[in-house]
Design brief:
Largest sheet: none
Number of domains: 1
Structural class: mainly alpha
Order of helices and strands: HHHHHHHHHHHHHH
Radius of gyration: 19 Å
């Protein structure tokens, strides 16, 4: 198999009808490391929104179990991508996600925004650091894939085309990326998750490096001091050097989606686990009522699909 054969296969598929297959090839074989990093930063980006960070801070999950919350999100999304949203495991993973979200008073726009980051943040990352440019079919397939996932999460009013959803994301960030104390709180917990993955002596450099990767709007929303300019430049140069090296590798023969890999919370995953074993606990008893979903706020059936 040639280095660009998978790209050519993607080019021959229909990005709407074959979106799941294209997304599985792109995220599981062509760019698995990049998708993982980009989705980490996509979630990080959502914490710049006060309405999102206030809820996360109120539940205490990012204070008490930050690594588990990260791992639950990553594994559940991987289950859906690896097996398909209408497969047995995919449907079970979606039920876990919907049940967790259905407990809380989350606006449809906030849900829609988080969904948009899953589409466009990896596309933006790969435009800078991918070992090859994304094919247009990969971009459109990501949109159609997450549009299908979003529909199964009960998210309403998902734009019907790629450009409109991109515009929604841009407009939403312009309106809602403002500083708040809970942005800073949840942002700091997240930076500490990233730092904890490295030996102690490297953690100050990791914290600095993360700040160097954030754009000006995110820095303002978190209230973080910017890193020296050379930090971001060095990180970008390293990522581009990695892309040049990966370009020389042979194509990946099998997808890494749904395959065992090191996990800090569930070391044996996926052996012996089901998607229903994952997910956040019920809301704490002392959570203020303003954060809880009332019966009149239903966002579809939280046990769907």
């Amino acid at each position: 198999m040639g280095r660009y054969d998978l790209r050519d296969r993607i080019a021959a598929l229909d990005p709407e009808k074959d979106h799941l297959e294209i997304y599985q090839i792109s995220s599981g074989r062509e760019f698995p490391w990049d998708y993982t990093r980009a989705l980490e930063f996509a979630l990080f980006r959502t914490y710049c929104v006060p309405s999102i960070s206030r809820l996360l801070a109120a539940t205490g999950e990012f204070r008490d179990r930050p690594q588990r919350r990260y791992d639950d999100t990553a594994l559940l999304m991987a289950e859906i991508a690896a097996h398909g949203y209408d497969s047995g495991r995919g449907r079970e993973a979606l039920k876990v996600v919907n049940r967790a979200h259905g407990r809380y008073a989350i606006s449809n726009d906030d849900m829609l925004y988080v969904l948009s980051t899953f589409v466009y943040d990896p596309i933006d990352w790969l435009s800078l650091y991918g070992w090859r440019p994304l094919h247009e079919n990969e971009k459109l397939a990501a949109f159609h894939y997450y549009r299908a996932v979003g529909a199964r999460m009960g998210i309403r009013d998902i734009p019907g085309d790629y450009a409109s959803f991109r515009s929604f994301k841009t407009d939403y960030e312009e309106r809602n990326f403002v500083y708040s104390a809970t942005n800073r709180e949840v942002g700091r917990y997240t930076v500490e998750i990233f730092a904890a993955w490295f030996p102690g002596f490297l953690r100050p450099a990791v914290r600095l490096g993360v700040r160097g990767m954030l754009d000006e709007r995110m820095l303002r929303a978190f209230g973080f001091d910017p890193a020296p300019r050379w930090v971001g430049g060095l990180a970008a140069a390293g990522l581009k050097a990695r892309a040049r090296a990966v370009r020389l590798f042979p194509p990946r023969k099998e997808s890494v989606l749904g395959k065992p890999k090191r996990n800090r919370t569930y070391p044996g995953y996926p052996s012996g686990y089901q998607p229903s074993d994952l997910g956040a606990p019920p809301p704490p008893d002392d959570l203020p009522a303003e954060f809880l979903r009332s019966s009149r706020q239903g966002q579809g059936n939280i046990d769907m699909p």
